[in-house]
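Support reply, case 0932

Customer input (verbatim):
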Amino acid sequence: MDIFSKIAAGEIPSYKCAEDERFYAFLDINPVAKGHTLVIPRREVDYIFDMDDEELAAFEVFAKRVAVAIKKAFPCRKVAQVVLGLEVPHAHIHLIPMNTEADVDFRREKVQLSAEEMQQTAAKILENF
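Our regenerated output:
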């Protein structure tokens, strides 16, 4: 079981933003912006394009619902969707509130939020989901 599967199963604590029986969303612990959320399938699959068409479509629809919640919780011009990451062998989508393209620069200094701020951020997204 990989780290993201353990997070979705509740074996590793996370700041849950949304979930259903197939997908799970939680705050990135090294966010590039407040509200930066990861969306994952509960099923272990390394590469997003290894998902069959139905699962990928459902994954995107779930991510869209999370993005709408993020935008309500943290008003912004758009919510960026980024698919990258080689560190964790589990498909995931980054959803990042943005007002400019610079807001989605993964090389910039990460936002530092306290545990309480992270909890409040996740709760705000979850209540809008």
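We compared this against your earlier run and they match. Two observations from our side: The longest helix spans residues 53-73. The beta strands are 16-19, 23-27, 37-41, 78-82, 93-98. Please reopen the case if you see a mismatch on your end.
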